[in-house]
Specification:
It is a single chain. The protein is an alpha+beta fold. The protein contains 9 helices and 20 strands. The strands form 3 sheets. Strands 3-2-1-4-5-6 form a 6-stranded antiparallel β-sheet. A 6-stranded mixed β-sheet has the order 11-10-9-12-19-18, covered by helices on one side. A 5-stranded mixed barrel has the order 8-13-14-16-20. A hairpin with a 2-residue loop joins strand 14 and strand 15.
Length: 464
């Protein structure tokens, strides 16, 4: 057999080797490029390439359909038959799959299915790198040090099935994180950006933002734990609402295990969660946040099913004008719960109708309020209320009558994102943002800043 190297050829050959009732093959071609820097100087850079092949075999039996999933990296033609046989053996040795459904069919093929995979490389930083060098010079002259990294990944996914699906999606993912530190390390500030191509990020603007925050931190104010009016920036809102989305599976809600369960049975669908006209939505075609327009499931779980691979995705409102509109479902869980099919989508947008930037919301503050930079180490305390705990990081600032007057200590917080939506008194302008806590798993988000009248800072933290 001649060696097969092109992704679509790998997929086709794996399908030809199948001896079971159904087969799904996912070929992921990965490439990445990165830059790292410390103390106002580049330290490392690199480019990587890789391939992962996932084979999902299905076997029909008297008691139902079973599935077997096997994934391998760096797959060549010689590895194909053993890989397919391993998936088939796993299916034959497994019991009936609870989420079994007929494999998706009838979806038009992607016109570029046979094209070479898209690749990224160091050229993605052609404009960004010189601008970063200029930011280093400004930071050096301003007496601060910049640390951070920029990473760009491009994954071309090829999906082929025994029912005739031939789909392909190219997903660029870029992240930029920048820290500024005072030379004595007593003050630190963070900013992050999500990008598809590094053409819409401005290191100079980020450096200027961080320089201002370091100046704010020159005055230190200690505050006790308590409830404070708090301005949550878009990155913090994203981290909270991404966790809420991950917790919004319909089956768990129907079975009474989540914050979206109705006491006495059923779900809270149709209930008003927020007095503000907030709409939380996902859309695979959202400008600047584009994601796969069909299901890509390498394994089955609470919110995904391998049997749904290739299922087309449509814009979905999870919350519409403050009311809970949808919970995530696979075809299987939709049938169990009697709810519409609503698979998870790899982006999240919150619209609140606000027009103010975070800076304008700060200026409009009367009395005292806290301005956060970001959240981290977020953990679930109680799934029934979706109570989360976590820490503030890299700058909490005190606002008095529209002016930032200094930096305060960090806090541990205890809050539920669902409850926060019910108490938010203002939503700012929606903008693309990078989640700090979940940025390794979920980068495509657009959020407004939120004003919370009584955010619960449960204890003082020594974190930085």
């Amino acid at each position: 057999m001649s060696r097969v190297s092109k992704p679509y050829e790998i997929v086709e050959r794996a399908l030809e080797l199948s001896t079971t009732d159904g087969l799904m093959v996912i070929a992921d071609e990965h490439s990445s490029a990165n830059l790292r820097w410390a103390g106002n100087a580049l330290t490392t850079n690199g480019v990587t390439r890789g391939r992962t092949l996932t084979v999902i075999a299905t076997v029909d039996g008297a008691e139902g359909t079973a599935s077997g999933v096997v994934s391998r990296s760096a797959v060549t033609a010689d590895d194909l038959e053993p890989l397919v046989r391993a998936a088939e053996a796993a299916a034959r040795g497994a019991g009936p799959a609870e989420d079994a459904q007929p494999l998706v069919s009838g979806v038009p093929s992607s016109p570029d299915f046979t094209d070479a995979p898209a690749e990224t490389g160091s050229e993605v930083f052609a404009d960004f790198a010189p601008a970063l060098g200029d930011a280093f010079a400004r930071a050096r002259s301003g007496g601060r040090e910049l640390y951070g990294f920029a990473n760009h990944e491009l994954t071309s996914t090829y999906l082929g099935t025994s029912t005739g699906l031939r789909l392909r999606h190219d997903q660029p993912t870029g992240t930029l994180e920048l820290n500024a530190k005072a030379p004595d390390r007593t003050r630190s500030a963070w900013a992050g950006r999500s990008t598809r191509d590094f053409k819409d990020v401005d290191p100079a603007a980020m450096d200027a933002e961080l320089a201002q925050r370091l100046r704010w931190a020159e005055r230190r104010i200690d505050l006790p734990a308590g409830r404070y009016e708090t301005l949550l920036p878009p990155t913090a809102v994203a981290d909270l609402l991404i966790y809420q989305l991950w917790s919004s599976t319909a089956r768990d809600a129907v079975e009474g295990r989540t914050v979206f369960s109705q006491p006495g049975g059923g779900t809270r669908l149709g209930e008003t969660l927020a007095p503000l006209p907030l709409t939380l939505r996902s859309d695979p075609h959202a400008p600047g946040l584009e994601s796969a327009p069909f299901v890509i499931a390498h394994s089955s779980g609470d919110s995904a099913s391998v049997f749904d691979n290739g299922l087309p995705l449509a814009p979905t409102d999870w919350i519409r004008d403050g009311k809970l509109e949808r919970l995530t479902t696979t075809r299987h869980s939709a049938a169990l719960t009697g709810l519409p099919v609503a698979p998870a989508i790899d982006n999240l947008v919150l619209d609140g109708g606000g027009e103010r930037s975070l800076e304008e919301m700060v200026a409009a503050t009367t009395g005292r309020a806290l301005l956060l930079t970001c959240l981290w180490y977020i953990r679930e305390v109680d799934p029934a209320t979706l109570l989360l705990t976590g820490l503030t990081r890299d700058g909490v600032y005190l606002v008095e009558d529209g002016q930032v007057v200094g930096e305060v200590n960090n806090f541990r917080f205890n809050e539920s994102p669902v409850d926060l939506l019910s108490r938010a008194s203002e939503a700012g302008r929606t903008e693309k943002t990078l989640p700090r806590e979940w940025g390794d798993w979920f980068t495509r988000a657009a959020m407004p800043a939120l004003r919370i009248p009584d955010f619960n800072m449960s204890s003082v933290s020594q974190g930085v």
